[in-house]
């Protein structure tokens, strides 16, 4: 028995392995994935190591620097048609009508004239006349051009938008020699507050230009004496607007509006 067992062990150890069937070999080939061959990268195609990008902290992301405010083109003293006065000089450009109703043009012109008149009452201030400033009405002009053609340092621009009993007035004061906006404001008020807005705009302009007023000058800045009657004031502005047409029809409409103004406010002469 010992000899038989030893013979079997020796035969199994030295005997060649039995050939496997073709089906078995195919199954093993499908079951075992192919070995990955490392790709050879030529020296010229080597990928540079990625730079480390440091993410912005939340504080830096939220507190980014605001873009600088746009500046106007700077005017040149040498190109001015007239020499600059020794006192601060300003031109009040006609306020633009932003309302859908073109008939509100008289309101824009009235606000422009009121501010011009109030500023002209200040002795230490040179104000361009209404006729010269209104030559730019309806035109797209730059502050630099206005400054050099009229010989002023400061230019006031603005717009008016009326909707029902509400009014929005935008105004900005620009130093033509530096291109800086010295002052800008937007007023959203009731139409009845239009007189207070006009006074406030005038005072803000004087403060921005560092013009000091005398006691009597501050009192003279107050608007029209009949300002407590808004309807009267608006009719008076319409009468002035029709009178500018220089026509028979315009004169008739101006006279009619003037009569309605006197009927509402007899004290106004």
Describe this protein's structure.
The protein has 269 residues and is α/β, with parallel strands linked by helices. It folds into two domains: 77-222, Rossmann fold (3-Layer(aba) Sandwich), CATH 3.40.50; 224-269. Helix content is 40%, strand content 14%. Strands 1, 2, 3, 4, 5 and 6 form a six-stranded mixed sheet that branches. Strand 4 and strand 5 (166-175) form a beta hairpin. Helix 4 (105-120) crosses helix 7 and helix 4 crosses helix 9. The protein is elongated. The N and C termini lie far apart (150 Å). 24% of the residues are buried. Residues 21-31, 40-67 and 223-227 have low confidence and may be disordered.
Task: Describe the structure in brief.
The chain is 40% helix and 14% strand. It has 269 residues and is α/β, with parallel strands linked by helices. Strands 1, 2, 3, 4, 5 and 6 form a six-stranded mixed sheet that branches.
Low-confidence stretches are: 21-31, 40-67, 223-227
User: How far apart are the termini?
Assistant: 150 Å
Indicate the CATH architecture of the largest domain: 3-Layer(aba) Sandwich
Number of domains: 2
CATH fold annotation of the largest domain: Rossmann fold
The CATH superfamily of the largest domain appears as ABC-type transport auxiliary lipoprotein component
Q: How do the helices and strands follow one another from N- to C-terminus?
A: HHHEEHEHHEEEHHHH
Main sheet summary? 6 strands, mixed
Number of strands: 6
Strand content is 5-15%
Query: What would CATH call the class of the largest domain?
Result: Alpha Beta
The rounded Rg comes to: 43 Å
Count of DSSP-assigned helices: 10
Helix content: 40-55%
Query: What structural class do helix, strand and pairing data support?
Result: alpha/beta
Rounded average pLDDT: 77
Q: What would the principal axes of the Cα set say about the shape?
A: elongated
């Amino acid at each position: 028995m010992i000899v038989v067992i030893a013979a079997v062990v020796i035969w199994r150890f030295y005997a060649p392995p039995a050939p496997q069937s073709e089906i078995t070999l195919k199954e093993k080939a499908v079951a075992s994935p192919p070995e990955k061959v490392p790709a050879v990268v030529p020296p010229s195609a080597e990928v540079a190591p990625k730079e480390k990008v440091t993410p912005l902290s939340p504080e830096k992301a939220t507190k980014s620097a605001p873009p600088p405010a746009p500046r106007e083109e700077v005017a040149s003293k040498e190109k001015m048609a007239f020499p600059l006065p020794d006192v601060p000089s300003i031109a009040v450009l006609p306020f633009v009508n932003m309302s859908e109703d073109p008939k509100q043009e008289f309101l824009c012109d009235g606000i422009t004239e009121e501010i011009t008149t109030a500023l002209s009452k200040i002795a230490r201030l040179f104000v361009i006349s209404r006729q010269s400033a209104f030559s730019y009405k309806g035109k797209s002009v730059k502050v630099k051009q206005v400054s050099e053609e009229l010989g002023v340092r400061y230019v006031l621009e603005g717009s008016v938008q009326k909707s029902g009993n509400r009014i929005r007035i935008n105004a900005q004061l620009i130093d033509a020699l530096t291109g800086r906006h010295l002052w800008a404001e937007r007023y959203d008020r009731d139409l009845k507050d239009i007189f207070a807005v006009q006074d406030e705009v005038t005072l803000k302009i004087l403060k921005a230009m560092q013009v000091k007023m005398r006691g009597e000058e501050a009192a003279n800045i107050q608007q029209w004496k009949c300002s407590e009657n808004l309807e009267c004031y608006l009719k008076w502005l319409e009468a002035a607007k029709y009178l500018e047409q220089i026509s028979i029809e315009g004169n008739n409409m101006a006279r009619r509006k003037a009569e309605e103004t006197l009927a509402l406010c007899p004290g106004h002469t």
